[in-house]
């Protein structure tokens, strides 16, 4: 035997094997509370093996005879419960009870066994399975962090058909976290008959990251899909999302826990009934497109002394030469690079007579942009300033954009803008700027001020980022070793 962990019933064969080992064995007595389950699992393996090893000639009939003998033995202990359990000579399996003429649609994956969908060509798509499950479910509960219109549009017909059937119910729990949910998608769901939608409107505290799709059936063959897939087009179609299909028939304790946990979320005060305007405001706050109720600082923010030295270096550098100014600041993590940029832009605003000059802030991750946007708003004391531009947020004609480099590159926006569309351009994590996705920005735009921020200007691939900043570093804050 291999050293390690086990959860096996100790039968005679295993007991003899353990006795021959020069190793310790951790054991426990069976508890009456779950001994029936443990012993049944042991029997399941034994019976399946015996049925599989029966002679191939008339194997099915031999299997029936063996199963009936086992049932007879069990009936001696529990005759009432096993009355009528014997299998007749013609062995069949019931798949559905339905009204003529059309047979019901079945999922490709079993409704009596656990299965795994991996998003590869070897497995059916999650989208196909959700559609097929909707065709025969009595109640559906959906739990996911984000709901996108692309995902809902793929399921629209199946959801409409399900909710229009009598005695059905659709419940959905989602969030406004990160502004990723599409209002249009949630509104479309809420307008379906026999449908209820609850939302967490707290964009900062949301704990919900689970994704689950529950299909309840009065037949006792309910199913749940649990995994990483939100209601979005990529997740439901070509995304490499892993999803475990749990069945009530094979995994009753897990199914009951899934059902109870959803019910707990449904009753949790954090998740409130969908209100269109309230969700719109929450999504706008998180995506940076609207006003926010986040508190402004009571006092005007001021830079630390070491930050002030960087700001003075930037100001003096601009006085020493005519624009355009291409300036690189190296500031170690923890020294407040973003605060330095916000303070510098505030000074630039003052130099422009108090009007906000067109601003473009570029970073590679939405989370960085959200933090940067909040910092700029705090320093400027204007909670309506700026807007996010990424794959899930499009502020339209805003002149103060906080954009992901991926969105700018994919939509080829720099090539569509006038070269002087922005007076102030900030590139965060500038050591990435030699990448192709950044070059369109740096080559096409000619701002008055191009400010680059980085904790390290050295790229591991040897590409030179200094060439975009006149081959020099204006100011540097490095922490001592």
What's the helix and strand layout?
Elements: H1 12-19, H2 35-52, H3 59-75, E1 115-117, H4 126-134, E2 139-143, H5 149-164, E3 169-175, H6 183-190, E4 195-200, E5 211-216, E6 223-227, H7 233-236, E7 243-247, H8 252-267, E8 271-273, H9 276-287, H10 305-319, E9 325-331, H11 337-351, E10 359-363, H12 366-380, E11 387-389, E12 400-404, H13 405-411, H14 413-416, E13 424-427, H15 436-444, E14 449-454, E15 475-477
Parallel strand pairs: 2-3, 3-4, 9-14, 9-15, 10-12, 10-13, 11-12, 13-14
Antiparallel strand pairs: 1-7, 2-5, 4-8, 5-6, 6-7
Helix pairs in contact: 4-5, 5-6, 10-11, 11-12, 13-15
Provide a descriptive summary of the structure in words.
It is built from 15 helices and 15 strands. The chain has 481 residues and is of the alpha/beta class. The chain has two domains: 173 residues, Endonuclease, Chain A (2-Layer Sandwich), CATH 3.30.870; 173 residues, Rossmann fold. The radius of gyration is 31 Å and the shape is elongated.
